[in-house]
């Protein structure tokens, strides 16, 4: 019997997704809203398929689940799975890929537009009654910037970076590509030292690794034009968060927005959550969360399960 267990269903489904096609892949399908570390082995007892978004499947857990044949990761990142232990036990690990591109690209442009139009400032001003107290028909207290004719720098030009580039170009922006640290040089990529002084806005769409951690620090922020914007919808550790907070307080940047922090959730605080930082927007790692994007994850989980059961595994990472 094909027995699958979804360990952290509520991390993906808010009650608005259709799990029918995924459920139909298995003879038995157990769904748990969330699973604590001490519950994992018991819940996977006898199961041949484990489905996890963020629940950790480490070597000890994997060795304690001899019936497992397939791990379906409901995300792209597989850092919650010990891939070496899975390989040693002959377990296939499949992930989901490209599901959030439209959602994250849209969120990136939304953040950039909010910075350029000073949307949070105007919203707060209206809520505070300042429009009602105005001596004319409008408020123009906060300088607004048009994106048309401005230059956008991209760090990361894969599927997601390419989608952001297309949206930016639709707004009339010129797009330049930056060279990522640790990658082979390319003629169409500019070094950070060349790129940063040229751009009016910078967006990040690259993985976090030893080469890219804190690749945007105080020195790099200082290279940006006065008034430039920076938007991060990739990983929090790409930017030195204290350096970004300092640059915003100093008034060097036109604004910054981040959908990610170095530690999530930020239970012990974060430099970017201080209440005195101007022109900063922080969203709670929600860029990927459009209902359409989350449904694509469910659909890909089903595709991966059916492919494995047919003997032709897909999106295999181990």
Automatic annotation (TrEMBL):
Q: GO molecular-function annotation terms?
A: NAD binding; oxidoreductase activity, acting on the CH-OH group of donors, NAD or NADP as acceptor
Keyword tags: NAD, Oxidoreductase
Domain spans labelled D-isomer specific 2-hydroxyacid dehydrogenase catalytic:
21-317
D-isomer specific 2-hydroxyacid dehydrogenase NAD-binding domain: residues covered: 109-287
Give start-end ranges for the coiled-coil region(s).
Answer: none
InterPro entries with a match to the protein in the record = D-iso_2-hydroxyacid_DH_PdxB, D-isomer_2_OHA_DH_cat_dom, D-isomer_DH_CS, D-isomer_DH_NAD-bd, NAD(P)-bd_dom_sf
Cross-referenced Pfam families: 2-Hacid_dh, 2-Hacid_dh_C
- What is the similarity comment for this entry? Belongs to the D-isomer specific 2-hydroxyacid dehydrogenase family.
- The protein here is known as Glycerate dehydrogenase
Q: Give the originating organism.
A: Pseudomonas japonica
Starting at the broadest rank, the lineage of the source organism is:
Bacteria, Pseudomonadati, Pseudomonadota, Gammaproteobacteria, Pseudomonadales
């Amino acid at each position: 019997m094909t027995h699958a267990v979804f360990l952290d269903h509520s991390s993906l489904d808010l009650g608005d997704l259709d799990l029918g096609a995924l459920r139909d892949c298995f003879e038995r399908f157990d769904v748990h809203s969330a699973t604590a570390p001490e519950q994992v082995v018991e819940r996977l007892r006898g199961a041949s398929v484990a489905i996890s978004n963020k629940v950790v499947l480490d070597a000890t857990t994997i060795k304690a689940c001899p019936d497992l044949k397939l791990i379906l990761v409901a995300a792209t990142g597989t850092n919650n799975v010990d891939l070496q232990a899975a390989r040693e036990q002959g377990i296939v690990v499949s992930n989901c890929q490209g599901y959030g591109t439209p959602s994250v690209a849209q969120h990136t442009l939304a953040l950039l537009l909010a910075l350029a139009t000073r949307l949070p400032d105007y919203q707060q001003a209206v809520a505070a009654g300042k429009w009602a107290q105005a001596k004319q028909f409008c408020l123009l207290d906060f300088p607004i910037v048009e994106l048309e004719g401005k230059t956008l720098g991209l760090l990361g030009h894969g599927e997601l970076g390419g989608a952001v580039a297309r949206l930016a170009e639709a707004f009339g922006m010129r797009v330049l590509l930056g060279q990522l640290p640790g990658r082979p040089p390319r003629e169409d990529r500019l070094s950070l030292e060349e790129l940063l002084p040229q751009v009016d806005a910078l967006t990040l769409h690259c993985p976090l690794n030893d080469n890219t951690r804190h690749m945007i620090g105080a020195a790099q922020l200082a290279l940006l034009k006065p008034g430039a914007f920076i938007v991060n919808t990739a990983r929090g550790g790409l930017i030195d968060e204290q350096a970004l907070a300092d640059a915003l307080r100093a008034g060097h940047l036109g604004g910054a927005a981040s959908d990610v922090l170095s530690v999530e959730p930020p239970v012990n605080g974060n430099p970017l959550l201080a209440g005195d930082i101007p022109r900063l927007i922080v969203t709670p790692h929600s860029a990927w969360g459009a209902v359409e994007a989350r449904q694509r994850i469910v659909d890909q989980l089903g595709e991966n399960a059916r492919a494995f059961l047919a003997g032709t595994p897909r999106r295999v990472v181990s």
